[in-house]
Amino acid sequence: MRTCLRNLAGIKISIWALSAACFLILQDSVSARYAKPLEGPEKVEMKRFRNGAGKISYPDDQSDLLTNRQIEPGKDPLKPHNFLVIITDDLGWSDIGAYGNTFIETPNLDRLANSGVRYTNAYAPASLCSPSRASIVTGLHPVSVNITEHIHGNQPVGPDRKLQTPPVDQALKLSFETTAEVLDGLGYKSAYYGKWHLGGGPNGPGYQGFDTTFAAGANGLPYSFFYPFFNWGIKDIQTVSQQGDYLTNVLTQKAIEYMLTADTAFIMYLNYYAPHVPIEAPDSLVQKYLAKAGGTEEGQIPNPYYAAMVTTIDQNIGKLLDALETASMMQNTTIIFTSDNGGLSVREVPGFDKHTPPTDNFPLREGKGYLYEGGIRVPLILRTPEMHGSPGVVDRPVTGTDIHYTILDLLNVKTDKDQGQSLLYEQQDERALYWHVPHYSPQGGKPASAIRKGNYKLIYFYEDERAELYDVANDPTESTDLSKSNRTLAKQLLDELKRWKFDIGAKDPLENPLYEKK
Questions:
Q1: Given strand 117-119, what is the order of strands in its sheet?
Q2: pLDDT tens string 46-89
Q3: 387-418 pLDDT, tens per residue?
Q4: For residue range 199-230, what is the model confidence (pLDDT) as tens digits?
Q5: Tell me: the pLDDT tens digits for 94-110?
Q6: Which of 10, 50, 402, 474 has the most other CB atoms within 10 Å of its CB?
Q7: pTM value surpassing 0.85
Q8: What is the greatest pairwise CA distance in the chain?
């Protein structure tokens, strides 16, 4: 039987909601979890002040940002400010130690969290990979770039689906400015290593402002995490690896080589393909977790193979931190760690279903492909030398789109983009976060949109034109629908969601004329 303490650690939950969550746990004893309350630093808020907005503009003295400047005797030189953005693929919110998990061992991510800020209410821009990744590198909502589902071709609708979903762009258009292109105006060098999934060829990251790319292209996943990794599309990684090599390890090694040999300030996006399917990991770690789970993976959540994948990511985070510390680069490098969406909580499609479902995102509801909390709430850790205040925990809702604005804020670059805000600001008002996924997901998610404002989240489902309302601050399991008992609030949030959709130009699904009701 799972324990309530392990899964609810780090979340502010009322006594009522805690009791409800524990009742749900008692009903579900299929898999074992290992738990203890999370011990972490005190809650703090970092306080900065907005300098205003406008079109892209840069500090007058750009040399201060990039190279050692001429200094007065006795003063330290100002070193370049580097950025390392680490994005995992399908990592569950509760699947690392810093977020309460003690079955999966992640000492290096815990170390990063304990030296920075852990956001407990961080959200992916979407419940699927491509739209989230497009938002992270542009600072724009998935609706604005017309990528609201993962890129896999606009499939014709069949008679089994009630709605016809809107087409999406099959690549990130070159007209959208990436963070790398903005920083190019400051003389920064930029690198994109790992999963891109926003178009290949002339739409790859090398055409989107990144000076150096590696193992990046149209591929949404590797054929195998072991050499040769990909069976089409991506070849550069195979020239520097050999039989037995593991994809996550090779990406990290190349990233370290890039950072340690950089001759000017840089921004690097390190995009692990893990822990996405296929669920594969080095055998030594698999055997460790199989033993920890009692010698079998049957009914075990998290799956031991998945746990081994996450620990492999953690080991590579340790290599990155050690390399930066040895090179005395930690004091001038901002590190941001997150996931593109929630963890996969269902069996994957045939061909990639081995060792799935890999996780369940408990105490959050559902997972990847859904707009319930398990599909969009993700881990987010920020460590920056510019942090104001002590390391700690921030509970206010933030989103992956905010990463773009945080980087610009640290460099005092102003922009007229207004679809996110710096993670360094103490929130001055109660902003709303929005999601629009008018598609059917392979995981079973139905076309839906959502809004979170304050403690509450409303999800609108297009098939039956129905809304659900949850107090996610006190009911993270989303077990109590308040849409009937609090009709006034439900209507207010639904109206606000509709206004946002109109303003941003969101495309809704339409009735499917081929639909055959069963």
A1: 212-214, 189-194, 266-271, 82-88, 333-339, 380-383, 117-119, 392-394
A2: 333 222 223 454 454 433 333 322 323 333 433 579 999 999 99
A3: 755 678 999 999 999 999 999 999 999 888 89
A4: 999 999 999 999 999 999 999 999 999 999 99
A5: 999 999 998 999 999 99
A6: 402
A7: yes
A8: 81
Tokens found for residue 490: 């439900």
Phi then psi dihedrals of residue 427, to 5 deg? -65, 125
Looking at residue 449, its amino acid is S
By the 8 A CB rule, do 379 and 112 touch? no
Give 38's pLDDT tier (boundaries 50, 70, 90). Answer: very low
How many beta carbons lie within 10 A of that of residue 28, not counting itself?
Answer: 12
Cα–Cα distance, 347 to 334 (Å, whole number): 36
Read off the tokens for 152: 């896999």
DSSP output for 306-330: HHHHHHHHHHHHHHHHHHHHHTT-G
Chain centroid to Cα 7, Å, comes to 20
CA torsion through residues 54, 60, 63, 68, sign: negative
Is the torsion defined by CA of 491, 492, 498, 499 positive or negative? positive
Residues in the chain: 518
User: By the 8 A CB rule, do 96 and 310 touch?
Assistant: yes
User: Residue 297 CA to chain centroid, in angstroms?
Assistant: 27
Nearest to 5 by CA among 76, 100, 125: 100
CA dist 423 and 48 (Å) reads: 10
- Which of 48-57, 458-467, 489-498 shows the lowest per-residue confidence on average (mean pLDDT)? 48-57
For residues 277-301, average pLDDT = 95
Please report the beta strands in 208-287, taking only residues with DSSP state E, as ranges in sequence order. 212-214, 266-271
